[in-house]
Amino acid sequence: MSEKITIIKGDGIGPEIMDATIRVLDHLDLGLTYDYQDAGLMALELHGELLPQATLDAIKSTGMCLKGPLTTPVGKGFSSINVALRRYFNLYANVRPVVTFEGTKSKYEDIDILTIRENTEGAYLSEGQTINEDRTVAESKIVVTREASVNIVRYAFDIAQKAGRKKVTAVHKANIMKTTSGLFLEVAQEIAKEYPEIEFNTLIVDNTCMQLVMNPGQFDVIVTTNLFGDIISDLCAGLVGGLGMAPGANIGNDVAMFEAVHGSAPDIAGKKIANPTALILAAAMMIEHLGYTVEAGRIRQAIKQTLLDKDRLTGDLGGTAHTAEFTDAVISRL
Ligand code: NAI
Ligand code: MG
């Protein structure tokens, strides 16, 4: 079987961590082939637009994309490319696992939390964001639909069931956002009844943040709306050593796109010191999605062992190793 994957190297540290990730994938020799496409600042320079139609067509044809972080120019009238990609392909589920790896700066042991974030609506609509002429009143629109809520909650329970997880927590703010968050909560409570074997609870988002820091062991699967999922998944990354450790998948019915949770890290771009772990773990999620479960496990195991080697840690984890040194060490352990 030869799987073709669309690769978008991305901006900032994107090309550095993507090269590292491709080296790891190639070492597994799965017969994957790559179709390189542009998006983000790179595409703006080369093709005059942030998200060329050719890139969209390529992703549509392979159905599988591994993507580096993309910089969206701020305040220049551009809307987020990531949000555009998620909506274009209706990638309704954003799946963000975090696990503790020994050797990282994590203050906690045995964290294993899966955040399932609704990925197409909520507070992430580019339309409906307005500000008046004298810039004294700004408004933005939040939309929650029953359909998207059903899809995301069911996805969370199905994945929990498949992975043998025990508990799903629906995170909301229905006490204040009575209609939008209220609808999400109502749907979550309804769907939960279809899965009596999985423990279910609901939690208000601010309390969730406090609970995550005080007692993260109580969480297993978290399902929530778009903005809360964005914030909570970064918080979860912080529980396991930082953004360099957190992968994510954007799943739709026809297309799946895998990426790191972090952004293009302009402060360290070009220095070849970025931690490639998040994108390598995203690649592991991708090959698992393709059916290579054993090989995905090998990648995670190699990362786990490498992180125990202090001489191989990158700067964000308190070490001095470069991206390539870390990657060499991962490959040598595969
Ligand atoms: P960021 O995630 O790029 O950086 C936050 C901090 O974490 C920085 O100090 C950075 O150096 C560090 N960091 C992130 N990834 C790292 C890694 N792999 N190794 C070591 N250190 C790492 O977030 P920021 O600065 O808010 O955003 C920068 C740009 O990235 C923005 O243009 C934003 O729109 C974009 N972005 C793109 C995303 C995507 O493509 N999925 C997601 C988040 C942000
Ligand atoms: Mg984010």
UniProtKB/TrEMBL annotation:
Pfam families cross-referenced by the UniProt entry: Iso_dh
Top-level EC class as recorded in UniProt: oxidoreductase
tRNA processing found in the keyword field: no
Cross-referenced Gene3D superfamilies: Isopropylmalate Dehydrogenase
Transmembrane segments: none
Keywords attached to this entry: Oxidoreductase
EC nos: 1.1.1.41
GO molecular function: isocitrate dehydrogenase (NAD+) activity
Span of domain Isopropylmalate dehydrogenase-like: 4-330
Family according to the record: Belongs to the isocitrate and isopropylmalate dehydrogenases family.
PANTHER family the record matches: DECARBOXYLATING DEHYDROGENASES-ISOCITRATE, ISOPROPYLMALATE, TARTRATE, ISOCITRATE DEHYDROGENASE [NAD] SUBUNIT ALPHA, MITOCHONDRIAL
Protein name: Isocitrate dehydrogenase
The species this protein was found in: Marinicella sediminis
